[in-house]
Amino acid sequence: MPAVGMVFVVRKLQLATLLVLTCLWLPGNLAKAQETPENLVLVTLDGVRWQEVFGGVDLALIEDKRFTSEPEILKKKYWHEQEILRRKQLFPFLWSVIESHGVLIGDRNRGSRIDVSNDWWFSYPGYNEILTGRADPAIDSNDKLWNPNVTFLETLNGMEEFNGRVLAFGSWDVFPYIINTERSGLPVNAGFAIATPAQTERTEWLNEVSAEAPSLWSTVRADFLTNGYATEALQSQTPRVVYIAFGETDDFAHDGSYDRYVDAAYRTDQMLAKLWNWLQATPSYRDRTTLIITTDHGRGHTPEDWTSHASPLDAARQMTGSDPDGIPGSNEIWLAAIGPHIRTTGLVKGHWKQSQIAATALASLQLEPAQLMPQADKAIAEILQ
Ligand SMILES: [Zn+2]
What we know:
The chain is α/β, with parallel strands linked by helices. The chain has 18 helices and 11 strands.
């Protein structure tokens, strides 16, 4: 190419660069940049107690042979005399990234509380409350019944800008009913479902592994499969809203395996760390994605009742001669969040309800919950910015 032509090309490039730079600073483009789509990842950890989230492992349960088969191994992994180091050993992501760049609610020893408001204190009523923003007294079992209530996921999927870009993944096979796939048409990969058709090589591998993995319970698959399908869909389909429902913790607790419950909680924290790092390293999600983590119910406080959860109403219905108060503590939950519209103050003091999570999720997407879901409880304003 002749020298004159080269100069021309260089000048043209400089001009183009100038134009691009100028455009970037035009107020119109600035407004457009602020309108970039917001995303949301909601994660639930079934039946994880606030006691472990804020206090780390419980020594009484580690040293009890009924619940922990190798106490020394568990102690070595998770025990520390100091509470703030102990909880960080169990939930390193929550107590490093979220504590310093997000918020946490639920440390009842420090004036921060969030409670279930439904009357049952078990899973389906809890997930219904989280996803629809309202406790429904008619949701009174974990049976596979189509949810008559509309979740915020379904509401979003009905909006043009979210349609086809809302996905859900769950370890428990009741999620398709809770999200009512029949009515909502939302894709929910849950329980022992595989992905059909497998659109990527990794999905094909996950389908194979799903058939080969040991089945621990009849209705709940291992969380690594749920996590695998969810992260693969995030990477290959770039959805705007993803719900991931992990389940192992509740089942290991019901089994009376404190060691496995604790290990499952730790593994989930590691999955969250990896997920958050990936979101923050990916241009379409970086600084535009909110991560909300919570749970469907609490559990008992003591070595005698930590394995289970029940409300007074549930206990009365079971008529097993159990405590008329049910299992105290089963209504006590927690929440953690991080994202561009979430405050960065760590522990937030106050008292909130599980029914406020749906509106909080919508508000984090910069939407107006009162317009979209007028029947839902109000958002947790104290964690939003
Ligand atoms: Zn349970």
